[in-house]
Write a structure and sequence with these properties.
The complex is a heterodimer of chains A (357) and B (547).
Chain A: H1 2-20, E1 44-49, H2 57-67, E2 70-75, H3 79-88, E3 97-102, H4 106-111, E4 115-116, E5 140-152, H5 153-159, E6 179-182, H6 188-201, H7 205-214, E7 218-220, H8 223-230, E8 242-246, E9 254-255, E10 258-259, E11 261-263, E12 269-278, H9 284-294, H10 297-307, E13 310-311, H11 320-325, H12 337-355
Parallel strand pairs in A: 1-2, 1-3, 6-7, 6-8
Antiparallel strand pairs in A: 3-12, 4-12, 5-8, 5-11, 5-12, 5-13, 9-10
Helix pairs in contact in A: 7-12
Chain B: H1 3-38, H2 46-53, H3 56-89, E1 90-91, H4 95-102, H5 110-121, H6 136-160, H7 165-172, H8 177-205, H9 209-215, H10 222-233, H11 236-261, E2 276-277, H12 283-307, E3 309-310, E4 313-314, H13 317-320, H14 335-365, H15 371-383, H16 386-389, H17 392-402, H18 416-438, H19 442-450, H20 455-484, H21 487-491, H22 500-508, H23 513-539
Parallel strand pairs in B: 1-2
Antiparallel strand pairs in B: 3-4
Helix pairs in contact in B: 1-11, 1-14, 1-15, 1-17, 2-11, 3-6, 3-8, 3-12, 4-23, 5-9, 5-12, 6-8, 6-9, 6-18, 6-20, 7-8, 8-11, 8-18, 10-11, 12-23, 14-15, 14-18, 14-20, 14-22, 18-20, 19-20, 20-23, 22-23
The chains are: A alpha/beta (357), B mainly alpha (547).
Transmembrane segments (chain B): 64-88, 100-117, 137-155, 199-219, 239-260, 281-305, 349-366, 378-403, 415-438, 471-493, 513-537
Pfam families (chain B): BPD_transp_1
Protein name (chain B): Iron ABC transporter permease
């Protein structure tokens, strides 16, 4: 019994020591970082963003060296979660600057006074992506990517069947049971496709969806479920050769000297991601510097490789595979962001009714 | 103060620290979120919230949640019990490895398990002929996959130290094996069975990824609905209605469970029975275990096979890539770094939940001297289960809007993630310890006191030896919960150091065959790390047979 006790106390002691030292996160942080310096100038800037944000350490270090600021990145959730968190903490924000609110959520953020105006110097060609209705420059466009229907060209070649071209073609019985896509309620990719059909068909969009579902379209929860499980060119080698993905996706399916997939450029909805200074930020100057940094040639050039999106800067050279296989649509389908903010709820309810029948 | 009142005051004093932590990190955020819904646009409008509850869609969602969670719980019990018997009462080569491996599914990220499941049962998979992809059957199978291990662990822990002599006596008097099970063993196991069932029900009822991924969007549960309303539509009124509904259902369940757990005489003699060899009488139990093994092994084998494929060849390339930042630098840090972050976070979450859990378990199991004292103890018991029954989305958003000002400006604290995970693990720790501590005969403590032992000394000599192994089991559990936790973690702001499940989610959400392979490989690493930790915990031999 006493042996057991001794064993126990030594085990507890070890655990306590471990907790106090290397194994723990407690006390691991540098608590002095971020305190204002002697002149009362803030020494850190906090960037709030979504889970997909990624830039190489090298670029972050460079920013910190150039500005003398410590860049803290707080990432969580998707674009919707990010926007709603910003709305709920409006006035007492979690950081100084936010990146990742897209054109399907932007109006909600503007309506709730989440962002403060900042007219950043825009790189060449970026004006084309400015948010309609954002007259006092609260949101700066940083990147864009278009959600497009993708086809497995090798599958269609083998079958001797011409791949579909338009949204209408997807309801053609020739393509029955071949299409898989993430749902609009659970996936931002799926939401973008719903918006594409609303742009194309106007008020008649529910009829289109009825026809689409009648033709055997398959819904999944997220992009990875559709692409990696059901799509013939995905990781799991599924059995559906038509999938909802991005204009850049063909750059990731290169077999031999050509891509095995192609994006249908008449089916695209363009998502633009913005950055903005948060109203009530502790360090608004630092926030502006982060926006300038996101628009700098160094970061813009890195966007395709790190975040799978196109830069807004038209002068940037794209990676070789992108230049060859990732073709953005010339004239994507669009819906006014204010309309999206107003109708999102009703559209999603109708969409759920139509697709779950 | 009368002795009864002062006893209750002392009891609440001991429980004060866990209660305060629960208040700050659970009650405050949830109340904050729910009241945002009740006070829409600055005016108190409970009518609008109650109006939401009248919607037919809400009824459908509630009904689906209830029946799918009940069925998931029943099947997890039905398949977990035989396995608990085989793994904790029988001895054969490899039993400890098998025990450790069975907890592995518990930590796998749902998004990856969803992919692995659907590769088996999807249209083009080897089990595609079953046609269960996107059906409730797939959802239930997914729930059992994740939760059977909870049953095995909680019930197995109690079964292991159950005195076999009562059963042997019944058998000697002519009872058949079924009769012994029904009349002796199961009644003795009742507290732990009810414990396991209530925890599993809460897990099933708040399952998120399983319902969406395997149900093909055709089914919504209360949890998925709250997610849609909060994270997408920002309809806080409807979200508040559903959160209140969730709380009411969970509270009802906990009350029923507390009633069912109560046994006339909880004092059982506990000894560590030597596991017996397998015999022909174990065939039914072996059958059940094998069935569960198939259900668990199928998706895991699909996962392992997928992680070893790249460019249509068998290779270790995906595993080698884990030390890099991904094919296209999709990651800020290599997966190996994320594993280290996960382990460190899990370490913190484990000691936090053990400390809190042990305090709570001791408080709720001490013998009560009055009815009101017993009530206070059983309310305390239930309160600490609540975090499992509330949506991670509500909690995550609640942290943001309530812990945002001094003195509670904690929303950026690096401790928030381990604390949130500790709260998720806490019910498992409490439910593992309570049945065992409740079984300690209070007369032993009294005897120790009579012999002159101080209260702490009496606890150390009487309770500790009994609770030692279950405590280890609980530690393993908490560690595993923390390693695999994704829901709450993904809603809390992370620093530059994401945990492994978060990284896996990022990898599988991006195109590129290497990213897909790496996501699978990282999942295999996560699962095997968990199994290895479990095995190490099992190997820590605690000399408990000596009392």
């Amino acid at each position: 019994m006493t042996r057991a006790c001794r064993l126990y106390s030594s085990a507890l002691l070890t655990a306590a020591l471990l907790a106090l030292t290397a194994c723990s996160l407690v006390g691991g942080g540098d608590s002095s970082a971020g305190e204002p310096d002697a002149e009362g100038q803030p020494t850190k800037v906090v960037l709030v963003t979504h889970e997909s944000f990624a830039l190489p350490d090298k670029l972050v270090k460079q920013f910190e060296q150039d500005t003398g600021l410590d860049l803290v990145i707080r990432a969580s959730g998707d674009a919707g979660t990010l926007t709603n968190k910003l709305v709920l903490s409006a006035g007492n924000p979690q950081g100084d600057v936010a990146f990742g609110v897209d054109n399907t959520f932007a109006s909600r953020a503007l309506d709730n006074d989440v962002f403060a105006p900042y007219a950043a110097a825009m790189p060449a060609g970026a004006d084309a992506y400015a948010l309609p209705g954002d007259d006092d420059h609260r949101l700066a466009p940083v990147d864009n990517a278009s959600v497009c229907v993708n086809v497995d060209t090798t599958w269609f070649d083998k079958q001797g069947l011409a791949p579909p071209k338009s949204l209408d073609d997807l309801t053609d019985p020739a393509y029955q049971d071949l299409f898989v896509l993430p749902g609009a309620a659970t996936s931002s990719t799926g939401m973008a496709f719903l918006l594409a059909t609303i742009a194309e068909y106007g008020d008649a969009w529910p009829d289109y969806w009825t026809r689409l579902m009648d033709n055997g379209a398959k819904l999944t929860a997220g992009w990875s479920d559709a692409y990696e499980v059901d799509f013939t060119q995905g990781g799991g080698k599924g059995d559906r050769p038509i999938v909802l993905s991005y204009d850049s996706s063909p750059a990731f399916t290169i077999g031999g000297d050509t891509s095995t997939t192609r994006a249908l450029l008449d089916t695209c909805f363009r998502q633009v991601e913005y950055a903005g200074v948060l109203a009530g930020a502790d360090n608004p100057d630092g926030a502006q510097q982060v926006i300038d940094w996101l628009l700098s040639p160094e970061v813009q050039q890195q966007l395709p490789t790190s975040m799978y999106v196109f830069p807004v800067d038209s002068s940037v050279t794209l990676p070789a595979e992108w230049a060859k296989y990732a073709v953005p649509p010339a004239d994507p389908l669009t819906v006014d962001p204010a309309e999206i903010a107003k109708n999102r709820d009703e559209w999603l309810t109708t969409w759920s009714d139509v697709t779950s029948r | 103060m009368s002795p009864a009142v002062s006893r209750i005051a002392r009891l609440l004093g001991v429980a004060a620290i866990p209660l305060a932590i629960l208040g700050v990190f659970f009650a405050l955020p949830v109340v904050g979120m729910v009241s945002r819904g009740f006070w829409a646009d600055g005016t108190f409008d409970p009518g609008a919230v109650l109006g939401v509850l009248g919607r037919p869609r809400v009824h459908r969602v509630l009904w689906f949640t209830l029946w799918s969670a009940s069925l998931g719980t029943l099947l997890s019990l039905a398949l977990g019990l035989p396995a608990a018997h085989v793994l904790y009462r029988r001895r054969f080569p490899g039993v400890s490895v098998l025990r450790a491996a069975l907890l592995a599914p518990f930590v796998l990220p749902t998004v990856v398990v969803g992919v692995a499941f659907r590769q088996l049962v999807g249209e083009s998979g080897p089990l595609g002929f079953l046609g269960i992809d996107g059906s409730p059957i797939a959802i239930i199978a997914g729930l059992v996959f994740f939760n059977a291990s909870v049953v095995i662990r909680i019930v197995g822990g109690a079964w292991e130290s159950l005195d076999p002599r009562a059963g042997e006596a019944a058998a000697a008097l002519g009872a058949g094996p079924w009769q012994v099970l029904r009349t002796v063993t199961l009644p003795a196991l009742r507290p732990s069975l009810v414990s396991a069932a209530s925890v599993v029900f809460l897990f099933c009822a708040t399952a998120f990824g399983v319902v969406l991924t395997l149900g093909g969007l055709a089914y919504s549960s209360v949890e998925t609905e709250i997610y849609l309303l909060t994270a997408n539509l920002l309809d806080l009124q409807a979200a508040a209605a559903l959160s209140v509904l969730q709380l009411v259902v969970v509270t009802g369940l906990l009350l029923a469970a507390a009633r069912a757990r109560r046994t006339p005489d909880p004092a059982l003699s506990r000894i560590l029975a030597r596991p017996r060899r397998l015999s022909s009488g174990d065939l039914p139990a072996l059958g059940g275990t094998a069935l569960l093994g198939l259900l668990v092994a199928g998706p895991i084998l699909a996962l392992v096979a997928g992680s070893l494929r790249h460019d249509d060849a068998w290779t270790l390339a995906n595993y080698r890539a884990l030390a890099t930042t991904g094919e296209q630098q999709a990651l800020i840090a290599p997966v190996t770094d994320a594993l280290v972050t996960s382990l460190r976070t899990a370490f913190d979450a484990t000691w936090m939940s053990l400390l809190l859990g042990l305090t709570v378990a001791v408080v709720v199991t001490r013998r009560s001297r009055s009815v009101s004292e017993r009530r206070v103890r059983s309310v305390l018991d239930g309160v600490f289960m609540l975090p499992l029954g509330v949506s991670a989305v509500t909690l995550g958003f609640g942290f943001l809007i309530t812990l945002d000002r001094p003195p509670l400006d904690l929303r950026d604290s690096p401790l928030l993630v381990p604390i949130a995970q500790a709260l998720v693990a806490l019910p498992l720790v409490v439910r593992t310890l309570v049945p065992v501590l409740a079984g300690v005969d209070d007369r032993l403590r009294q005897a120790a006191a009579t012999l002159g032992a101080a209260p702490w000394r009496a606890s150390l000599t009487v309770d500790l030896p009994v609770v030692a192994r279950p405590l280890l089991a609980a530690a393993g559990f908490a560690f595993a919960v923390s390693l695999g936790e994704f829901g709450a973690t993904s809603f809390l702001a992370r620093d530059e150091h994401p945990t492994l499940p978060v990284v896996i989610f990022g990898l599988i959400g991006h195109p590129g065959p290497m990213n897909y392979g790496m996501a699978l490989a990282a999942s295999v690493v996560l699962a095997s790390t968990t199994a290895a930790v479990m095995l190490a915990v099992e190997r820590l031999h605690v000399p408990v047979g000596s009392f």
